[in-house]
């Protein structure tokens, strides 16, 4: 539970009206002419803007979250089917703490930072081109990818961070843990005032049995700054693919939309406060009539009343009868 989650906070951001247009990004999957490479491109400025507006985030933090969102959407295409959920967790030693991104094969996604940067750091001017986020995420630590296929046990893989730049760390994960020669690159551009200009990225992988050197060529092109040189205000999937594979011919296999989505609600809020423990929850219930829990992913505030807190406390005691008797005798 982060520091701000049980404090009174700003009014809840209500869910978008049903008649409000959805704020969509898009993802395109392609295969090259020889069937040796898969090329996936993502453009998700609108889902990132929605996330930033809901959580009142901009500047450097928007760059970190944007890179996480783009990478998460790209990673979801490694899934076997659209029902698969993927969670990427970067546990670095930097000031933002753990970075989490959840994506689904059907295009839904959300991302959060465990901690916020000090205002002066978050609002400092961001340089043009590739912004180094390693110092804020942490250049050492671990990256864990959890793939939930709805089976009894989700598949999980962990690697050490290589740079804390997020895309480079995921690229290493794909090559090491999933044995898929890959290159993955994300770009986020922001205005001088800290608002989001655009967010996009490319993933290139070989098919099993193909020559990994083809991915190396794409990696070199992407590290040359071709992606950062694009104007993300009006970028197309063709431009993104061109940045990675140049004039290589390819065909579009599939395209779908991307959206920001956070399925949080009262159950999530109860889970968050349960980490306080029964005794503290009962104390809180005596002190205040309502407790607000703010979701780190979407900024939504759920209000729990004193009876909700007592209810969670009694569930905790029921699950730990020994602890309950020790506490009641004290
Ligand atoms: Zn939420």
Please provide a written account of the structure.
- With 330 residues, this protein is an alpha+beta fold.
- It folds into 2 domains: 25-260, Hsp33 domain (3-Layer(bab) Sandwich); 266-323, CBS domain Like (Alpha-Beta Complex), CATH 3.90.1280.10.
- The protein is 32% helix and 28% strand.
- The chain has 11 helices and 12 strands.
- It has helices at residues 45-55, 59-75, 119-122, 134-137, 167-176, 213-223, 237-245, 266-274, 278-287, 306-319, 321-328; strands spanning 25-32, 37-43, 85-92, 98-104, 108-113, 141-148, 155-160, 182-190, 196-206, 250-260, 290-294, 301-305.
- Strands 7-6-3-4-5-10-1-2-9-8 form a 10-stranded mixed β-sheet, with helices on both faces.
- A hairpin with a 6-residue loop joins strand 6 (141-148) and strand 7.
- The protein is globular and about 70 Å long.
- The two termini are 26 Å apart.
- The model is unreliable at 1-16 and 324-330 (pLDDT under 50).
- Zinc ion is lined by residues 262, 264, 295, 297-298, 300.
Q: Notable features of this structure?
A:
330 residues, alpha+beta, Hsp33 domain, CBS domain Like, 2 domains, ten-stranded mixed beta sheet, two-stranded antiparallel sheet, 32% helix, globular, disordered C terminus, binds zinc ion
């Amino acid at each position: 539970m982060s520091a701000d989650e049980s404090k009174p906070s700003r009014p809840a951001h209500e869910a978008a009206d049903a008649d409000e247009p959805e704020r969509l990004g898009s993802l395109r999957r392609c295969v090259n002419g020889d069937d040796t490479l898969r090329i996936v491109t993502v453009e998700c400025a609108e889902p990132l803007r929605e996330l930033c507006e809901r959580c009142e985030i901009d500047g450097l933090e928007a760059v970190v979250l944007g890179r996480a969102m783009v990478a998460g959407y790209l990673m979801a295409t490694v899934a076997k089917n659209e029902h698969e959920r993927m969670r990427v967790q970067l546990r670095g030693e930097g000031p933002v703490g753990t970075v989490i991104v959840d994506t689904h094969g059907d295009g839904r996604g959300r991302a959060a930072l465990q901690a916020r940067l000090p205002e002066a750091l978050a609002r400092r001017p961001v340089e043009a081109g590739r912004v180094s986020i390693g110092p804020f995420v942490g250049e050492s630590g671990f990256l864990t990818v959890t793939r939930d296929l709805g089976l009894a046990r989700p598949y999980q893989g962990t690697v050490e961070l290589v740079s804390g730049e997020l895309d480079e760390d995921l690229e290493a994960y794909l090559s090491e843990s999933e044995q898929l020669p890959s290159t993955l690159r994300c770009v986020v551009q922001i205005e001088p005032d800290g608002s989001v200009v655009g967010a996009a990225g490319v993933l290139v992988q070989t098919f099993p049995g193909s020559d990994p050197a083809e991915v190396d060529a794409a990696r070199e092109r992407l590290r040359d700054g071709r992606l950062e040189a694009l104007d993300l205000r009006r970028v197309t999937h063709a431009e993104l693919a061109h940045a990675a594979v140049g004039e290589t011919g390819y065909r579009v296999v599939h395209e779908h939309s991307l959206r920001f989505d956070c399925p949080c609600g009262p159950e999530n809020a109860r889970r968050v406060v349960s980490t306080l423990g029964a005794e503290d929850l009962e104390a809180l219930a005596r002190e205040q009539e309502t407790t607000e829990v703010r979701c780190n992913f979407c900024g939504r505030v759920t209000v729990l009343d004193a009876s909700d807190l007592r209810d969670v406390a009694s569930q905790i005691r029921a699950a730990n009868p020994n602890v309950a008797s020790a506490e009641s005798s004290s």
